Amino acid sequence: MGGSLPAEEDVLSGNSSAEDKYKAWMRHRYNDCVECLSELLGHDSFRVKESSLCTLMKFVELEAECPLVAEQWKGSIAFPHHLLKVVVNGLIPIHEDASLLISRFQEYMEFDDVRYFVMKAVTESIGQVMQKTKERPLPFYQQNVFSLISSINMPNKERDMVKFMVKQDKREEWKVSKLQTHKQAFERMWLTFLKYQLPSGLYKKVLVILHDSILPHMNEPTLMIDFLTVAYGVGGAISLLALNGLFILIHQHNLEYPDFYKKLYSLLDPSIYHVKYRARFFHLADLFLSSSHLPAYLVAAFIKRLSRLALTAPPEALLMVIPFICNLFRRHPACKVLMHRPNGPQDLSEDPYIMEQEEPSESRALESSVWEIQSLQNHYHPDVAHAAAILKQSLSEIEDDISGLLELSASELFDKEIKKTSANVPLEFEQVRGLFGKKNDIFAEHFALD
Amino acid sequence: MGKAAKRKKKASTFSKAKGSAEPTIAMVKSNPFEVKVNRQKFNILGRKTKNDVGLPGVSRSKAIKKRTQTLLKEYKEKEKTNVFKDKRFGEYNTKISPEEKMIKRFTLERQQNYGKKNIYNLNEDEELTHFGQSLAEIEKLNDIIDSDSDTDERGALSAELTAAHFGGGGGLLRKKASSEQEDEEEEKPKSRKELIEELIAKSKQEKQERQSRRESALELTEKLDNDWKEIQTLMARKPPKSERKDKEPDEYDMIVRELGFEMKAKPSERMKTEEELAKEEEARLQKLEADRLRRMRGIDEQENKKKPSHVSADDLADGFILDKDDRRLLSYKDGKMNIENEEEQEEEEGEKEDNENEEGEEESATEDEEDVASDNHSDLESDLESEEEAAGNKEQKKQKTNENESQNVEELDPKMEAAKSELPYTFAVPESYEKFKSLLAGRTVEQQLIILERIQKCNHPSLAVGNKTKLEKLFGFLLEYIGELATLDLPELKTIDKLILPLYNLCQMFPEAASGNIKFVLRDAAHEMEEVIEVKGRATFPGLDTLIYLKITSLLFPTSDFWHPVVTPAFIYMSQLLTKCRITTLQDVIKGLFICSLLLEYVSLSKRFVPELINFLLGVLHISLPKQQAQGEFVSINELRNFYISVL
């Protein structure tokens, strides 16, 4: 064995020994077999795909044990990365969803060396595929790549890396056994992946896992700044999600983000109380606004905007945002002037606060009042009305803990109410006459029985 | 009998006792502490030593025994000569077994009591005697002699009389007889009979004399009276009272007496005038309204909880409230169920009939609506117009129907009678929903109502113990039935409309059960929605049944309360519907608007703020805009505020 494989015809026609000829022929048959198997990875039936995947991985394992190609220089460890690349390419097809096969592949990713070479292969593959398509997103391909790379479990310490497919003694010197190289490969893979435009669903998914499964495993997290800045500028839910990554960069990596609070302020729009990531956003907003060095006008602007938006919020969000606003008042006593203007404006036009103004300092929030919270005292939900009634009392010194309220859902509220038992059930005293037969029934005006 | 003889006898008995006590003595003798030895100073030959060894304890006890049996007995029987004889049958006869003894005694007792007139008189048959004469006979004599106590010689009884009274103290009688014999020896001594006859004759004579004297006295007084009357007429001009009395008393007195003795009617509350009744009703409503307002503000919720309402000791805790109007007594009249508030009901029926008429006439208008709905026109204007038309028509019809009302009531009566005649009068509460359904199946609406009413009456909680739970179940069945009617292809809304009334009544009777049932329905609906959201990501608007349930909730419970066990979950559920349901068809819009009006009705009294409602309306407006204009994702908050104010 040894050297690269010459072409089949050359060997057969050449004048090498019969044994060599046989070996070369066998190698070619093996290659054919691998080729067939890689084609079968795209088969319709999952069972076929699965068994061909397993067979290929078995080949990888065997090749790692007995390398087909001799060591190029002494001490280097050969890994059948060509074969693995074939497998990886099979795992991330361009036109179909291969998440099932990818989840089957998870067990092989436990091997540190396999993981490393998969990362490299993926990076290469992305470069090749995306170069060809030029800016046009490939939803299936990107989805597949994402499900493959998001499931990568990076080790935290070098000591944890003990599971290798290739069993060699001189492993310590092998660069694959270094965490640093893993991190590099990981970083390069993600950066290549994120370099290209993503579909918005995938965008959100990436941002959701960014802060706790990508950033910590990168050699230089600051490389993500560009990506996050762009995402923060997109607006809507994507901005909300980018906030988390930005926070880590600002907090741990000394990122200075210009007009961060202005941007945060502009993130507050009516959808803020309705989106899925509400809990996450308010958790971060609480962190950002916990600084006592913020100017009062800024906090007041936040308070005003949050309370203005609260007029359209569902009860579960209101139950969270009212204590949130109260906490802001506690941290920034200078804003309490808002609470101490009990008589709100007669008309919305008289409210000095300018909702449309994007610059918090220009919004004249400090001149206004929190009449919105006051009107929430008439909210139909008794708990919300109770919470809003806190304006009538003097604020306590201790901050409310809102962590338990962040994840409140409407169904939880409903269940809580329906489980309450009351010994005394008040009854309607007005005698009914029929379905719409009440006095001054609004229904009779709009609906008829038929 | 000599005492010596007695003593001998006793001694013999003692010796017998001694014999029986011998072993004990032997035992005592062996005990050195019981023995007293008399030491002999000198041994004298030929002398019998009798008392060398003594037993002081034994001899003392013997002596005491002897004393109690002789001296004590004598002392006790001192100066007593009577002897108590025990005549009980066979008391000391040991030969007869106790059972036999008892039987004998029992037969003896029965023999003794046989033929007695009075079982309580123990001495009836025993003849008591005095000096050999029956005491009963002497008593008879007494009666004759002592006929009149009004004798002149009271206290001083003649010798004969006393003799006769006390059986004649034999000696005395004999003495007298002997003295008489001495006086007139020829005369035969009078026999007892003769004596008595003489006595009788004497007393009779005396009696007669007394009577005649009394009569003469009476005559004299009468005469005197008459004379006095004559004089009186001369003295006073007034007619004598007696004459007046004789004529008049009849009618007047009788009436007076009658009235006097007649059962007096107790003072009762006077009948209330219409105005007062109206005032009372108003006061009641005011109180209820005040309660409602208090609950609406939700201020003293806590206080209320602390003070439980006063519960009477007679309270059956069946949730039956007296001051509500819904109670109906079960009574019969001419063999038919007598409905207490017939008038009221008839009115109601009449009104219902009116409604039906209205609906009948309205059909044309509403059909138009349906057409519009089915055409799926995107513009709502035509829809609105038709609605307005319908409203206008309704008003006109109301006037008409008011005029017709009285007629309708009259027309209805025979119908009702016919319907009633077909139905049985008593119904058991159905155990399951299937039974309940089969009970109502195939009946007209009126019949269904009657059936429900009768079920309620026949099973009123005050009639039997288990009725309460049964009727509570009935509420659930009725609710389910209404839901089923609403889910039909052609929802029977008119039937539902009428079934509301029994539902309301049941709810008034059993608030807890009713609230439990409705909460259950709401929870089911909400959980269903949750599941749909989990599966599809977005919910769809619920069916008509759920909407009807929500409407019913507003009819049964006060929606203005700050917190209410049923209404608050209903609120949350509706707000979730408005926020989480996707609008895909025009029908969805209508359902959403229905919920909006429901919410509006819920908060119409309490004037609460419902953001979801405004959001939904804005969303609907946004959808209804032509596409080119619909650029702003959200309508500005300014509009929202204005809208909010206008709603309030």
Automatic annotation (TrEMBL), chain B:
Cell location: Nucleus, Nucleolus
InterPro entries noted in UniProt: Nop14
One BP annotation, GO: maturation of SSU-rRNA
GO terms for cellular component: Noc4p-Nop14p complex; small-subunit processome
Chain ranges passing through the membrane: none
Compositionally biased spans, kind Basic residues: 1-11
Coiled coil segments of this chain: none
Extent of Acidic residues compositional bias: 340-373, 381-390
Entry keyword annotation includes tRNA-binding: no
Region (Disordered): 1-21, 167-414
UniProt xrefs under Pfam families: Nop14 (PF04147)
Keywords, sorted A to Z: Nucleus, Ribosome biogenesis, rRNA processing
Basic and acidic residues bias (residue ranges): 187-230, 240-306, 321-339, 391-403
Superkingdom of source: Eukaryota
Record's function text: Involved in nucleolar processing of pre-18S ribosomal RNA. Has a role in the nuclear export of 40S pre-ribosomal subunit to the cytoplasm.
Similarity comment text for this entry: Belongs to the NOP14 family.
Protein name: NOP14 nucleolar protein
Naturally occurring in which organism (per UniProt): Meleagris gallopavo
